Amino acid sequence: MSGNTVPQEEKEKYEVTCYSCKGRFDTLEAVWCNCLVSERTLVCPSCMRCFCKAPWAYKERFWASAPQLLWDRKIEEHSLNATPRSNPEPEHVNRPLVMVVDDDREIQKMAHRVMEGLGYGVILARDGAEGLELARRYKPDLILTDALMPKMDGREMCRQIKTDPDLKGIKVIVMTSLYTQAKYKMEAFKEFKVDDYLSKPLDFNHLWALLQKYLG
């Protein structure tokens, strides 16, 4: 019997340069981020940052070269909890209660998972008109809303909430990927009375800090 051993097959790797710290890491060993986005990205184990806010060209190159194993992970990730659950009755919600208003089903799915994971109650609305209706019914402690939506956008929904004596105490955070310039933020604060303003994609740590600020 030969004393030579058959070399063990080398484990597949897909190493990339981190968008944030520029270090190299194996994406097949990395975990998904907790950002509130329709498509999560992977976390660098050195700096603990993902590449959700990287330029499109970076993401395009990343997935163009990704091995099938990573594509399989991505498909599995998107198949988990694909359909957000229906809103419970008002008497059965957990408090503090966060209402997420967004017409993107993937954002709704991610929001539901993130908020429940942080210990908050969560309800979902598809647009500002439904959000206003549910705000009157549920009296959430905080509303996280997209700026641009059909029927009624998030800023107008906020303005109507802040002029309603029964609802004006609800904290409203508007999130947007378009209206990120300072003049739009000032408009949101002055004309629509929003409590805070977030740029998409939402960084988990920033979102968590705001939830702690307003809900404790």
List the helices and strands and how they pair.
Elements: E1 15-17, E2 24-26, H1 56-64, H2 68-79, E3 97-101, H3 105-117, E4 121-125, H4 128-138, E5 142-146, H5 154-162, E6 171-176, H6 182-190, E7 196-199, H7 204-215
Parallel strand pairs: 3-4, 3-5, 5-6, 6-7
Antiparallel strand pairs: 1-2
Helix pairs in contact: 4-5
What do these coordinates show?
This protein folds into 2 domains: 15-79, no CATH class; 90-215, 3-Layer(aba) Sandwich (Rossmann fold). The protein has 7 helices and 7 strands, in the order ββααβαβαβαβαβα. The chain has helices at 56-64, 68-79, 105-117, 128-138, 154-162, 182-190, 204-215, and strands spanning 15-17, 24-26, 97-101, 121-125, 142-146, 171-176, 196-199. The strands form 2 sheets. It has a 5-stranded parallel sheet with strand order 4-3-5-6-7, sandwiched between helices. Strands 1-2 form a two-stranded antiparallel ribbon. Strand 5 (142-146), helix 5 (154-162) and strand 6 form a beta-alpha-beta unit. It starts with 14 loop residues before the first strand and ends with a helix.
